[in-house]
């Protein structure tokens, strides 16, 4: 796990050096003509299209703020420290509002923790405004039209490209890096992560071609229904990055909706007979799996019956593993794929 993390961070540091080099170069006629794009791979003014409209940035942003989950990881990976970002509200084992891969990246950049926005009860618009941003990144988010309108009164906002909470990790990088004038560096980051994934997956050939579904949080006191993430959610999409398959049952149910999660009655659990591996959020004690296996309906699901499951610890950083983000992927990749491989070993 450490070697993957080190390679990604080393690459990011190199990127940061390139950015600083570009910004510090001597002036020329060309530099003067393109003074708003020095050190960038985009020309400004720049317009970014997204699901909530079009956002025009008159010049390369200097003060970058981010809201909602993981958007801050893009500028950080590219050597840009946000002036403010959302505090982590899931998987934060030490309650400091910063996940470990973000904390390490900040240390690599010798940077202090940015202003943390408490989003427990929604976006703190006043706190965002206090950071005086030039742009607000939210390519992976659940912004409503009203959220977008309010934030746009503070600074230009880059929202999700299609549906709320459904932006693939590559598009998170592409949209957010484009908005800060570093699209080329964003593409390099994507390539580096893909290489990391390929190298890790090659060590676990047993997961190749296996079908997997991702359950949402399951209430052990009420297992009369099962909720799961659709093909619009990044957790499900990430299975394909790992060389696995999305079950036909999940793909079929996902058609005709943009929802990132759906619910199925336990009485219709046979719909998921084509699932090889079940993953989701659970606990370290194994209580959830035992509950599912004891239930007369859910135990009929082949994957649950044979125990080809991986239930992530929901209160620890590893619990965020299946929701791929720019800095977290390489950090948790070895552990996550190894656990899926262990589950795959039980599939006959």
What attributes does this structure have?
348 residues; alpha/beta; Rossmann fold; 3-stranded parallel β-sheet; 13 helices; 12 strands; 14% strand; disordered N terminus
Radius of gyration: 21 Å
Number of domains: 2
Number of helices in the DSSP assignment: 13
In terms of DSSP E residues, the strand content is: 5-15%
Task: Characterise this structure.
There is one protein chain. This protein is α/β, with parallel strands linked by helices. The chain folds into two domains: 2-199, 3-Layer(aba) Sandwich (Rossmann fold), CATH 3.40.50; 205-344, 3-Layer(aba) Sandwich (Rossmann fold), CATH 3.40.50. 37% of the residues lie in helices and 14% in strands. The chain contains 13 helices and twelve strands. The protein has helices at 2-23, 29-33, 73-77, 100-108, 125-130, 145-152, 169-179, 183-201, 234-241, 248-254, 287-294, 302-306, 328-344; strands spanning 46-50, 53-57, 64-66, 84-86, 115-117, 135-137, 157-158, 212-214, 225-229, 261-265, 277-282, 309-313. Helix 1 runs antiparallel to helix 8 (183-201), helix 1 (2-23) runs antiparallel to helix 13 and helix 8 packs parallel to helix 13 (328-344). The chain is globular and about 60 Å long.
């Amino acid at each position: 796990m450490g070697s993957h993390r080190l390679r990604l961070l080393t690459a990011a540091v190199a990127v940061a050096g390139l950015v600083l080099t570009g910004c510090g170069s001597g002036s020329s006629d060309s530099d003067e003509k393109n003074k708003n794009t020095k050190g960038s791979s985009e020309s400004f003014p720049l317009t970014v299209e997204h699901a909530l409209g079009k956002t025009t940035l008159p010049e390369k942003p200097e003060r970058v703020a981010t809201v909602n989950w993981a958007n801050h990881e893009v500028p950080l990976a590219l050597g840009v420290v946000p002036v403010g970002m959302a505090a982590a509200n899931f998987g934060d084992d030490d309650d400091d509002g910063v996940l470990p891969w973000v904390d390490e990246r900040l240390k690599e950049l010798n940077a202090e923790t940015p202003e943390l926005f408490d989003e427990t009860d929604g976006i703190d618009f006043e706190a965002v405004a206090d950071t005086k941003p030039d742009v607000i990144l939210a390519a992976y988010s659940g912004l409503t039209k009203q959220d977008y309108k309010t934030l746009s009164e503070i600074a230009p906002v880059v929202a999700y490209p299609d549906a709320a909470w459904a932006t693939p990790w590559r598009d998170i990088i592409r949209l957010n890096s484009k908005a800060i004038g570093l699209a080329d560096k964003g593409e390099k980051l994507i390539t580096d992560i893909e290489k990391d994934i390929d190298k890790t997956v090659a060590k676990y050939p047993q997961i190749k071609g296996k079908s997997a579904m991702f359950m949402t949080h399951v209430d052990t006191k009420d297992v009369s229904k099962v909720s799961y993430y659709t093909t619009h959610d990044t957790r499900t999409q990430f299975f394909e990055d790992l060389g696995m398959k999305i079950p036909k049952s999940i793909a079929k149910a996902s058609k005709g909706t943009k929802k990132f999660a759906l619910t199925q009655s336990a009485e219709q659990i046979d719909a998921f007979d084509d699932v090889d591996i079940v993953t989701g959020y659970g606990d370290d004690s194994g209580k959830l799996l035992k509950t599912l296996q004891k239930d007369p309906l859910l135990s009929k699901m082949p994957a649950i019956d044979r125990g080809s499951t991986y239930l992530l610890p929901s209160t620890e950083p590893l619990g965020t593993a299946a929701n791929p983000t720019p800095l977290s992927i390489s950090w948790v990749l070895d552990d996550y794929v190894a656990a899926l491989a262990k589950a795959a070993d039980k599939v006959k």
